[in-house]
Amino acid sequence: MKAFVTGATGFTGSHLVKALKQRGDTVVALVRKSSDLSRLADCDVEYVYGDVGDRAALTTAMQGADVVFHTAAYVELGIVDAARMERVNVDGTRAVLETARSLNVPKMVYCSTIGIYGDTQGRVIDETFQRTQQGFSSAYDRTKYLAQQLVDRAASEGFHVVSVMPSGIFGPDDPHFGPVVKTFLNGKLKVWAGGDRITGIVHVDDLVAAMLLAAEKAPRGEHYIISTGEMTTREMFALLSETAGVPAPAEIPPPVVRVVGNLLDPIGRLLQWQPPISRERVHYLYDRCVRVDGSKARRDLGWNPRPIEAVIRELATA
Fold it and tell me: pTM of this prediction?
């Protein structure tokens, strides 16, 4: 099989490329001239250089592809370049869809997010849930929602595209929670915020397995929530502490976090600096709760992820 992958140098994309190569597939990856290729250093991959919105590059890269995996995204909370996020997440998805359709690529798998469902206010939902939140919690949520609308429209028009909606993606080389874990294991993380925050968890390699299964088995237009289970941040640190023998960090009282977020947010915007806490991040910590049920992928695709405790313990031993 010949696969084309966007976002191939990223966390999810690089794990996907390695899985494809391990099973003997040919892989073409879209990368920017400025991309760090170190995650793919040992992979025999054909590179096509261009931005995700570069239709000429996309046309070159998709020639003869059996499947397109679209994982490229601008993922960030807090102080973000909203215009750039829209170009990558919305316009980029539009370009990938339209190019794939014009070349009659047989299949596409789109890596979405559970964020498209909006704040479920603690209710556990599945793929049938209809978004009730008015407005959006972040530019990321908004742009991924708009991109999902493009994907669903293409499916309704006959294009074979399938969407996977991962929860929080974890793994030893996770660029988001990974540095936090490293600081913790080095004994330098003394405090943390939002211990009660519930997070859906999936190992990056289990997400990749779900994407491959979706490419092989899923009917056109299907959605699959990809989440192994959920834990609070406090439970995660308790597991990491038990595994590594490092004391769990103390929790900062929520009122203090809210005050600090309100103070640092305007400073970050003025200086174009990403503070460790901001109004948007405070909102995600305390005011927004998305809970999901990932049983459809297990049932319909035969997806069999590792236990949730193993995902977290691996972070402390990798």
Answer: 0.96
CA angle (237, 241, 246) in 5-degree steps: 125
Query: What whole-number distance in Å separates Cα of residue 127 and Cα of residue 117?
Result: 9
End-to-end CA distance of the chain: 32
Concatenated DSSP letters of 148-208: HHHHHHHHHTT--EEEEEE-EEE-TT-SSSHHHHHHHHTT---EES-TT-EEEEEEHHHHH
Alpha-carbon distance 127 to 12, whole Å? 22
User: What are the sequence ranges of the domains in the chain?
Assistant: 2-170+201-227+291-303
Q: Indicate the helix (H) or strand (E) that contains 129.
A: none
What CATH topology corresponds to 2-170+201-227+291-303? Rossmann fold (3.40.50)
Q: For tokens 């391990």, name the residue.
A: 22
**Partners of 67 in the β-ladder:** 3, 107
Using alpha carbons, select from 124, 190, 184 the residue that is nearest to residue 312.
184
CA 2, CA 213: separation in Å to the nearest integer?
Answer: 16
Task: Give the mean pLDDT of 304-311.
Answer: 97
pLDDT for residue 225 is more than 90: yes
The DSSP code for 55 is H
Question: DSSP state, 276?
Answer: S
pLDDT of residue 318: 74
The residues annotated as belonging to the active site are 140
Do the Cβ atoms of 193 and 283 come closer than 8 Å?
no
The residue length of the chain stands at 318
Q: Residue 42 — pLDDT band, cuts 50, 70, 90? A: confident
Note the pLDDT of residue 18. Answer: 97
**Tokens 């993922």 found at:** 75
Distance of alpha carbon 129 from the chain centroid: 20
